[in-house]
C-alpha cells in the first residue's frame, strides 16, 4: 500500500487486488478489488487461467469505474487453497 | 452538556489512523491504457538476486516481454506454494498480455516491478522504494498500475 500510494501520488492511477481488503483500505489504498482468495493467490487459483483472467479484467474495469477513494470492488470469484 | 471529564485523555487501545487520501483520476478509456504490474509478492527474474527474507526494501524490474517461466518468488511472509505452481496467481503477466491482445488494454508496460512487501523498513519503503518505482513508471509514460499485495 505504501508503494501504491507513492505511484498514485506521482500521478498514475492505481488499483490493488487484495486478499485482505480491510487491511488494505485501512492503509489508505485509493482503489481495491477483492476476490475471495487467500494471501498468495490474489489473482486467482494457480493454473486456472479463466479465473485469473476474470479477476484481472474486472479489476482493470474497476480502476475506471471506482469514483470514490478507498472503495472496494468485491469480485465473485472464490478459491479455497488446500492446506 | 459536556461528557468530557479529563481533557486530552487518549485510549490505551492502539487505533490505527488511515493516512490522507491520495487520488489520481482516470482520464482515458481502458483500451487506450498501457498498464504496469507491480507486486509486493517478491516476484523477480530467476536470474535476479533473491530478496533477503528477513527484510528487504530493494525492488526488481521485470520487463514486459519476460516469459512467465523465467519468473520466481522469494518472499518470507506468505505461503509460496500456489505462486510456485503458477506465477500468474500473484503476478498475472500472461493474463495481462492476453488482455492486451484482445484489445481490453493497449498494452502491458515495458517495465514492471517486484518487491518484498508485508513488512520491512516502512520508512525506507515510504521515502525511497515507493518514489523510485513511481519515478520509473512515470518516465516510461505508464497510464495505470495494477498491484497485487495485502
UniProtKB/TrEMBL annotation, chain A:
Q: Which domain of life is it from?
A: Bacteria
Report the protein name in the record: D-proline reductase (Dithiol) PrdB
TrEMBL record, chain B:
**Alphabetized GO MF terms:** oxidoreductase activity, acting on X-H and Y-H to form an X-Y bond, with a disulfide as acceptor
Keywords recorded for this protein, A-Z: Oxidoreductase, Selenocysteine
Q: Which Pfam families match?
A: GRDB
Q: What is this protein called?
A: D-proline reductase (Dithiol), PrdB protein
Taxonomy, top ranks, is: Bacteria, Bacillati, Bacillota, Clostridia, Peptostreptococcales
Amino acid at each position: 500500500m505504501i508503494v501504491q500510494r507513492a505511484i498514485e501520488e506521482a500521478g498514475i492511477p492505481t488499483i490493488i487486488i487484495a486478499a485482505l481488503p480491510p487491511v488494505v483500505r485501512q492503509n489508505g489504498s485509493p482503489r481495491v478489488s477483492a476476490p475471495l482468495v487467500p494471501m498468495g493467490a490474489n489473482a486467482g487459483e494457480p493454473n486456472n487461467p479463466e479465473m485469473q483472467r476474470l479477476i484481472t479484467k474486472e479489476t482493470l474495469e474497476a480502476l475506471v469505474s471506482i469514483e470514490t477513494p478507498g472503495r472496494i470492488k468485491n469480485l465473485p470469484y472464490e478459491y479455497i487453497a488446500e492446506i | 452538556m459536556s461528557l468530557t471529564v479529563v481533557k486530552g485523555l487518549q485510549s490505551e487501545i492502539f487505533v490505527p489512523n488511515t493516512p490522507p487520501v491520495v487520488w489520481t483520476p482516470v482520464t482515458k478509456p481502458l483500451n487506450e491504457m498501457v498498464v504496469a504490474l507491480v507486486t509486493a509478492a517478491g516476484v523477480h527474474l530467476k536470474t535476479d538476486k533473491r530478496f533477503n527474507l528477513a527484510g528487504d526494501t530493494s525492488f526488481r524490474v521485470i520487463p514486459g516481454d519476460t516469459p512467465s517461466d523465467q519468473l520466481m518468488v522469494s518472499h518470507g511472509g506468505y505461503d509460496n506454494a500456489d505462486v510456485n505452481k503458477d506465477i500468474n496467481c500473484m503476478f498475472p503477466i500472461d493474463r495481462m498480455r492476453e488482455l492486451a491482445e484482445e484489445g481490453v488494454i493497449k498494452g502491458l508496460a515495458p517495465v514492471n516491478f517486484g518487491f518484498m512487501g508485508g513488512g520491512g523498513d516502512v520508512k525506507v519503503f515510504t521515502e525511497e522504494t515507493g518514489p523510485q518505482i513511481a519515478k520509473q513508471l512515470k518516465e516510461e509514460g505508464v497510464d495505470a498500475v495494477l498491484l497485487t499485495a495485502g
